[in-house]
Structure formats: structure tokens, C-alpha cells
Amino acid sequence: MEKPRLPTSTISILSFTLGAWLVFDSARKLLTGYYTGEQTIGLGPWATIISALEIRPADMAFPFLFLGIIWIVNGVIVLLGATTRYERTIAISIVTLFYALPGTLIGILNIVLSLREKRSVRRSPN
After folding, report:
1. Which pLDDT tens digit goes with each residue over 24-53?
2. Most buried pick, 8, 46, 89, 97, via CB within 10 A?
């Protein structure tokens, strides 16, 4: 296995970081009944978006747990160099854009990096 390029490593690191946070925060919600910071600073902007869809933010613990696991698996897939790694990253990034602020920022960054890497991989002869 060859050493991944910097953008590919960045995609993996961002995937692992967001995935670990989502798993941690959703597991905390399931175990304690509260998301991180819920009692002190309140929920993030994502809760407003979810509430507008008439979904209670409290009901998002399992979807967030699942999404976190998908992000972690995505980080591994990107590092292993699967042929569809960038398409997968773009798809999960689009799904995560609603997770306002961390998911939006990481999602946009991953989409940009994935599109750029996909173009460079297509151009480079193997």
C-alpha cells in the first residue's frame, strides 16, 4: 500500500474526527440523557434545523450514532484506497451538511477535497 497523498489523509482525519465525535456525543446522550453541553450552553444550530422538520433533537441519538460509525468506516475506506472512496465521502458529506457547524464545515471541506482528488486520480496514469 502506497503512502496516501495529503488531501486523502486529510479526508480520513476529518472522517475519523467527526465520526468519533458523533459516536461519543450520541453514546453520551443514550447513557446520560444529555448531549455534550446541552445543560450549559444548549444544543447547536442543528437542533433548530431538526426541530423545524418536527423531529425532537432528543430522538437523534441513534441516527447520530449510526452516522458516526459510517464516518469512521469511511475514513478507513479512504485510507485503504477503495475505488469509490471519493464518491462515498461526497455522499456522506451531503447527508451530514444539516449537522450545522461541525458537520457542515467538515462536509464542505471533504466534498471539495474529494472532488479535487477524484480529478487528480482520473488524470494520473497508473
Report:
1. 999 999 999 999 888 888 888 888 888 999
2. 89
**Count of alpha carbons within 13 angstroms of residue 63, beta-carbon side:** 12
Cα maximum dimension of the chain: 54
10, part of any domain: no
With respect to residue 2, please indicate whether it lies within any of the assigned structural domains.
no
Provide the pLDDT for residue 114: 95
- Residue 108 inside a domain? The answer is yes
Domains in the chain, number? 1
- For residue 19, the tally of other CB atoms under 10 A from its CB is 22
CA–CA distance, 11 with 13 (Å, rounded to integer): 6
Domain membership of residue 88 (yes or no) is yes
Q: How far apart are CA 87 and CA 121, in angstroms?
A: 13
Grid cell listed for 67: 452516522
Nearest CA to 65 out of 24, 106, 17, 18 is that of 24
pTM of the model: 0.87
